[in-house]
Amino acid sequence: MTNSTGQPEDSAPRITATPNGPYRLTGVRRIVWRKPVKTADGEPIAWVQGEVLADANEEYWLCRCGQSGNKPFCDNSHRRVGFEAQDAADPGQRSDRAKAYGSGETVLRDDRSVCAHAGFCSTKVTNAWRLSAGGGLGAAERSQLVAMAAHCPSGALTLSLNDEDVEPSMPAEIALMPDGPLLVTGGIVVERSDGTVLSKRNRMALCRCGTSANKPLCDGSHAKAGFSHSPGQQS
């Protein structure tokens, strides 16, 4: 059996959260750093790609307990610390959970259950919900709203044009957000440790601090937990 790209189904990119253990990556070629670009006020407004950590079609095991001394890769620290992962992320369709804001041609859709709290959705002046509620957006406001939704790493926010979600084109790869989650793009299959496959999405954020209450998805707990791992940092 083949997928839509003509590849054998079993070679399609896949991430499996193993029981109380790491993420197993198969068919995923690239692992990179992706860092937020921030304004002088500390507001994230864009992404920039950093160092490429892996670029080969191999099997990778990535830490999800947050304790590895070889981050982002697993070093079996989950066994030492007795890591327990209750994978509770909803496998249902995003469309069943997302709430619509605004009306007319452009509608913001928000699935709070998958939010990673990356902060691209707001500034000191406005936010995505206020913009979408304004109606009759000018070019500048519309561009800002489009950018906010497109830069949301978890896919919690999307824009809908004429009732159809508009998604940026993104490669099938894994990116590391400094001191934050794994950013999964390009519709890679993600499987919970109980074998349940999550609804496939263009953008997802997976926990790598070990403390999310919505594993394997990130819920922003890394900030409160003080999770630290950035480019050049020795774990």
Low-pLDDT stretches:
1-8
Distance between the termini: 41 Å
Q: Indicate the structural class.
A: alpha+beta
Question: Topology as H/E string?
Answer: EEEEEHHEEHHEEEEEEH
How confident overall, as mean pLDDT?
92
Number of discrete helical segments = 5
The shape is: globular
> Strand content of the residues, in percent?
25-35%
User: How many DSSP E strands?
Assistant: 13
> What oligomeric state do the depicted chains represent?
single chain
The largest pleated sheet is described as:
5 strands, mixed
Task: Please describe what this structure looks like.
This protein is of the alpha+beta class and 235 residues long. It folds into two domains: 9-90 and 169-225, no CATH class; 96-166, no CATH class. It has five helices and 13 strands. The strands form three sheets. It has a five-stranded mixed beta sheet with strand order 4-3-10-11-13, covered by helices on one side. The protein is globular, with a radius of gyration of 18 Å. Mean pLDDT is 92; it is low at 1-8.
Keywords, separated by commas or semicolons:
235 residues; alpha+beta; 2 domains; five-stranded mixed β-sheet; four-stranded mixed β-sheet; 27% strand; disordered N terminus
